Amino acid sequence: MTITLHRGDLPETVDLGPLVAVDTETLGLKLARDRLCLVQLSSGDGTAHLVQFDRSGYDCPNLKRLLASPNVTKIFHFGRFDIAMIARHLGVIARPVYCTKIASRLTRTYTDRHGLKDLVRELLGIDLSKQQQSSDWGAPELSDAQLHYAAADVLYLHALKVRFDELLQREGRGDLAEACFGFLPARALLDIAGWEEEDIFAHS
Questions:
Q1: Strand order across the beta sheet in which 36-42 lies
Q2: For the whole model, what pTM was predicted?
Q3: Residue 16 C-beta-side C-alpha neighbours within 13 Å
Q4: How far is CA 55 from the centre of its chain?
Q5: CA–CA dist 54, 155 (Å, integer)
Q6: Are the C-beta atoms of 120 and 156 separated by less than 8 Å?
Q7: What's 105's DSSP letter?
Q8: Model confidence band, residue 133 (pLDDT cutoffs 50, 70, 90)
Q9: 42 half-sphere exposure, CB direction, 13 A CA radius
């Protein structure tokens, strides 16, 4: 594992290719209250690039360009939250996207355990530590444990996508998954606009 921490923006020289794993770390899970602290990126080669913000501003043109690029597919786990945080703080809509949590819900219907730790253990045989999940991501200096935790959240998403592509094809749900992925940015914008808890498709 190679971890590179960048402060404020991704260097223009970093090329992560057409398929990039993305995750975020925030001060909490409330869109209207909590700030974006960190964006993690990986091209699936065992290397993670972490962009840390001081939260006084989010002037990061290189990162924004990558996240908004129509030529780069962004792989998320529970992309609904990450896409909303990115849209709210960076002002860009990440698309096209692939979400391993949606893929899991569409294929692993024998369980209700769809967390990243569960997927990586079952499908890849790797145990992830989640000890740093609730740590202070707004700290000016992140610990080695935080950096390794943050990197781990993106290092395995490419391998998970390969497995889920196989499962989606096996179950005949690939087209349905693509439709869900296409709608995901709109779902994130609904959350930002105040429809987090309301199902707009419900009858009543």
A1: 2-7, 47-52, 36-42, 19-26, 73-76, 97-99
A2: 0.95
A3: 31
A4: 19
A5: 24
A6: yes
A7: H
A8: low
A9: 25
| pLDDT for the residue numbered 30 | 92
| CB neighbours of residue 31 within 10 Å | 19
Query: Phi/psi at 167 (nearest 5 deg)?
Result: -70, -40
CA dist 149 and 139 (Å) reads 15
Q: What is the amino acid identity at position 171?
A: E
Q: Which CATH superfamily is domain 2-193 in?
A: Ribonuclease H-like superfamily/Ribonuclease H (3.30.420.10)
* Model confidence pLDDT, tens digit, residues 162-203: 999 999 999 999 999 999 999 999 999 999 999 999 989 998
In angstroms, the Cα distances linking 50 to 8, 21, 192 are 10, 12, 24
User: CB-based burial of residue 116 (10 Å sphere; 0-12 exposed, 13-18 middle, 19+ buried)?
Assistant: buried
Closest C-alpha to 40, from 53, 52, 50: 50
Beta carbons within 10 angstroms of residue 15's beta carbon: 7
Interstrand relation of 73-76 and 19-26 (parallel, antiparallel or unpaired): parallel
Question: Bridge-partner residues for 98, per DSSP?
Answer: 75
Please give the structure tokens belonging to residue 190: 């609904």
- For residue 203, count other CB atoms closer than 10 A to its CB: 4
**Could you give the CA distance from residue 177 to residue 77 in angstroms, rounded to a whole number?**
14
